[in-house]
Amino acid sequence: MRECLSIHIGQAGSQIGNACWELFCLEHGIKPDGLISSEVNNESVASFDSFFSETSSGKYIPRTLFIDLEPIVIDEIRTGQYRQLFHPDQLISGKEDAANNFARGHYTVGKEFLDPVLDKIRKLVDQCSGLQGFLIFNSFGGGTGSGFSSLLMEKLSAEYSKKSKLEFAVYPSPKISSSVVEPYNSILTTHSTMEHADCVFMVDNEAMYDICSRNLNVDRPTFTNINRLIAQVFSSLTASLRFGGSLNVDLIEFQTNLVPFPSIHFPIASYSPIISADKAFHENYSVADITKAVFEPSNQMVKCDPRNGHYMSCCLLYRGDIPCKDISATLATMKTRRTIKFVDWSPTGFKVGLNYQPPTVVPGSDIAKVPRAACMLSNTTVIKEAWSRLDYKFDLLYAKRAFVHWYVGEGMEESEFGEAREGLAQLEKDYEEIENEVEDLDNNNNEEY
Questions:
Q1: 154, 253, 416, 437: which one is catalytic?
Q2: In whole angstroms, what separates CA 206 from the centre of its chain?
Q3: What percent of the residues of the chain are helix, what percent strand, and what percent coil, each to the nearest 5?
Q4: For this structure, is 253 an active site residue?
Q5: 3-state secondary structure at position 212
Q6: Contact at 8 Å (CB) between 138 and 145?
Q7: Which tens digits make up the pLDDT trace of 88-145?
Q8: For residues 146 and 189, is the Cβ–Cβ distance under 8 A?
């Protein structure tokens, strides 16, 4: 078996987790009480052992853990529609919030919380016959999402060093911010997880708001709208582990194909078609159209324009009724487009996954049901724009040592700020070096002609 453990940390991680498991249950025909629907065939049941475990009573329980240092968000799950789906031990909440403070999540409140969480993870791992890896959902800006996530990742690296650790992170938006100290938390957690996470897929709320309002005609998008969109991306990523297809993609294949150098492991996600039900019947869903759409900046889930950078690698995950020859023809066309620029040392560039299961939608959601969809994970040099924005905000705050006393008061050394900032500067430099190499080669080629 190829089991995966999903760990949802903090408010953002838990709410995304809620949307993901709601979608998975619909895809597999599992009812909110964990029992299987009578219409589901045996083939489908055999395929989802990687994400669900069966109990002696015939119930299916998600292989997951929800963790938050405060009880409010986890209590919503305990009393929500899917309260019977999760084992009570899988919902772990504390009494005291991390208060948007990395140091509280990492050093004081979070540290007391660590041992019970690791015990629960060990129990879940023991139930697996061939654990493939961990999927960690969190936000970079929150206290629990940044502080406790980095503490847990350190422990997971020590105990399960050979297993894949993929992170789905809500990245700080350029203009919208949920807390003042977001730059501090984000840079501290990025620095500490840089060596522990194998791959970090990033989305930002501002890009998601824009997609919801533009493509789905939602005037005032809520986190429910955004989380259901993220759930579709996550579902496409893991579809190969749960359903049959002609080109399956494992967790380890993502990092092998997307990460050219250890530190350059921050791909951007994009998804297509994202379309409202009233437009659905007037659109063409050809393979060429959905592939072009995932390369459009308007469908990228992080605010940056990929036309300003170079792609190092792309992973295209198709699902639904898609012939292989259409994919080959479309990719050949895409390679000739001037807006899609690859680095010279990556001649093939594309990793393709193909799954026969079409996307499912949650009843009452804004996204229309479509026969086929594409999800792209792209490792591009343009992500340095996002790091530069974050570093700039950090520098403004740290120049005045604003809010630093809250972190130092929780037992954190002030020197950690400087170390984390240096780590991010090095990351920016790594991306710049790749970009400069490409520009130098372009200039040399122009001179030869």
A1: 253
A2: 15
A3: 50, 20, 35
A4: yes
A5: helix
A6: yes
A7: 999 999 998 899 999 999 999 999 989 999 999 999 999 999 898 999 999 999 999 9
A8: yes
